[in-house]
Automatic annotation (TrEMBL):
Pfam families: XdhC_C
Chain ranges of the XdhC Rossmann domain: 77-218
Protein name: XdhC/CoxF family protein
InterPro entries: MoCofactor_Util/Proc (IPR052698), XdhC_Rossmann_dom (IPR027051)
Amino acid sequence: MDPYQLKKLNAERRARRAAVLVTDLGDGRDRLVCEGDAVAGELGTAIAEAFRTGASGVVEAEGRSFFLNAHLPQPRLVVIGAVHISQALAPMAQVAGYPLEIIDPRTAFATPERFPDVALHAEWPEDALKVHPLDSYTALAALTHDPKIDDFALKAALEAGCFYVGALGSRKTHAKRVERLMAMGVPAERIDTIFSPIGIDIGAASPAEIAVAVLAQVIRAFRSRDTARQPKGQAA
C-alpha cells in the first residue's frame, strides 16, 4: 500500500470518518475515496454500496477488477437520560455492536450501580458533548422528557449530522419540542428528521419493549443511510 494513502487513511480513521481504499487489481494502483467524494459510473455505485454496508470485496466495473477495502467508524449510541429504558437498552446495544454512552446530570440516576460497564457521564449535555463530540456515525436518543436536558443534545445531534436522532414523547410533547428547537435557530427541515415518538411501531409498552423498538430503529437508520428515509414509527 502506498505510504501516502496509508497516512490519509489513518487520518480519516482517527477523525471517525469513513473511507474506502480502492485497489486496481490489474496494475496494483490504489487510491483512497473518502465519504462524500464523487466517483462516477459503475465503480461509484460499488463504492457507495461499500460505504453503506461496510463490506469489503472484489467488484467488476468498467471492464476492470477492483478490491474495495471499506473502513467505517464503529457506530455508537449516545443516550440522554439514565432512565429505565436506558437500563434495558444498554446491554442490547452492546450485543448488537453499538457501544452505548449515557449522559444525565441527575447524579441520583446516573450511577455505576444502575449502569455497570456503561460509559456514564453524570454531566449536562452541554459539558459532556464538548469532550465527547457527536458525529455522523453516532445515533442519539433523548429519553429524559426534560427540555432542559434533552433540547441542547437534540440541537447538537442535528447540527453534527448524526445518522439517527430520536426523542421520547407523545406527538403533543413533540409539537412543543419543535417550537423550542425552532426558537433555538434549528431549521425546520432538520427538526423534521427527528424520530418522535421514538422507536418503530411494535406496540411497545414496557421499558424493555421500547428499548427493542428504539434499537431496531437505530439499526434500520444506520443500514439505510443515504437512501430514502424510512417512515417514522412510534413506540412511546
